[in-house]
UniProtKB/TrEMBL annotation:
It comes from the Bacteria. Transmembrane segments: none annotated. Coiled coil: none annotated. Pfam families: DndB (PF14072). It comes from Desulfofustis glycolicus DSM 9705. This is DNA sulfur modification protein DndB.
Length: 365
């Protein structure tokens, strides 16, 4: 006996790998109701998805709520465990591809891709019920068992590569600090023409000296908790600081003037690497936040720092671990500490704690 109760989805029918699939627009209010799961009760080998990482949900939900006029969520992909019937619209001139998908309410829906989107949608609707009237694309496949569902999850994520941090900064127009990073990279004399805008790592032969992601982190350090009049003031402050600092780092100027290559600089010196750039940002933050009128005179003294990689007595354990540059948080702090002490700035209690741990041998990598 057939199930007298059913879901009916307007959809488009397609074919992949000789199997039918269906694409529909589903109201957000239905997403939490029909896509149920109990992954907490199943071991990984009996699940068709990864375990739900609840720590990701508040940020995803907040993204929906804070960008109600511009958010973008990609389609949810699910398998249907049950007998379905596709009813084409006879009058349509489309090869019977458009119609209605009838799914019995006794059927189960298994999410192959999108369980975090589903949970974030549920969380956001609780706070903003009006979102329930919006829709999301859903791709339905027919369930062919757990093995097939697990393979679908693996295939859907096989070539999913997270974009580089630099590319994320380049394209992010919601994050003010990303906007500042882009503006400073283009307008600051220190950085213009020598910033890699897409990649977050530089090869030995790369023509650029810095990455956009390192500019982002350095400006975040520089402008942290500094009171300003707004975006333009922050940009002006950052440009002024980096242009002044660049005057006192000889190799940066030589690369700009094409006297030496960026590859040579990155090979032989540490001052263009992300850990040092961020450390210089923290030093600048101390100078600007404390309102030191002679901050330019202070920053000038970085010209006497030996930035060479071969200066292991100074940088091993701070900016480098085993001769390799490290950008771990404590390495940034230890590098900033060395710069601060060189130019005559006092360490904060937290910086002193990290410094003491370093001298005790707690931070040897």
């Amino acid at each position: 006996m057939s199930d007298p109760f059913e879901y009916v989805f307007p959809c488009i029918r397609g074919m992949q790998a000789k199997s039918e699939y269906f694409v529909s627009m589903c109201p957000l209010r239905l997403i939490p109701k029909i896509f149920l799961f109990n992954e907490e009760e199943l071991v990984p080998e009996l699940r068709a998805q990864r375990f739900l990482n609840k720590a990701r949900l508040p940020d995803m939900s907040r993204y929906l709520l804070e960008n109600k006029d511009s958010y973008v969520f990609s389609a949810i992909t699910a398998s249907i465990d049950g007998e379905v019937k596709f009813e084409p619209i006879e009058a349509s001139d489309n090869g019977k591809r458009i119609g209605f998908l009838h799914i019995p309410m006794s059927a189960q829906f298994i999410i192959n891709d999108g369980q975090h989107r589903r949970a974030a949608i549920e969380m956001a609707i609780r706070e903003e019920p009006a979102l329930a009237d919006e829709s999301i694309a859903v791709v339905f496949f027919m369930d062919k068992g757990l093995k097939r569902c697990q393979q679908m999850f693996a295939d859907l994520n096989r070539y999913a590569i997270r974009p580089s941090k630099s590319l994320g900064v380049l394209y992010d127009h919601r994050d003010e600090m990303a906007e500042i990073a882009r503006t400073v990279a283009f307008k600051a004399e220190a950085f213009n023409g020598v910033v890699e805008m897409e990649k977050s790592t530089l090869s030995p032969r790369a023509s650029r000296l810095f990455t956009l992601s390192s500019i982002y982190n350095a400006n975040s350090a520089l402008l942290s908790n500094i009171e300003s009049g707004g975006f333009d003031d922050k940009v002006t402050m950052a440009i002024e600081f980096w242009d002044e600092a660049s005057k006192h780092i000889r190799e940066w100027r030589l690369v700009k003037n094409r006297k030496i290559t960026s590859g040579d600089v990155r090979r032989d010196f540490i001052h263009s690497h992300a850990v040092v750039l961020q450390a210089i940002g923290y030093v600048g933050n101390t100078l600007l936040k404390n309102g030191l009128k002679n901050w330019k005179a202070k920053i000038k003294t970085i010209s006497t720092i030996d930035w060479a990689r071969s200066n292991t007595k100074q940088w091993e354990g701070r900016a480098m671990i085993g001769g390799k540059v490290s950008k771990a948080h404590h390495n940034v702090t230890l590098t900033a500490n060395a710069i601060k002490k060189h130019i005559g700035l006092q360490l904060t209690p937290e910086e002193q704690r990290v410094e003491d741990a370093f001298h005790r041998g707690d931070y040897e990598g």
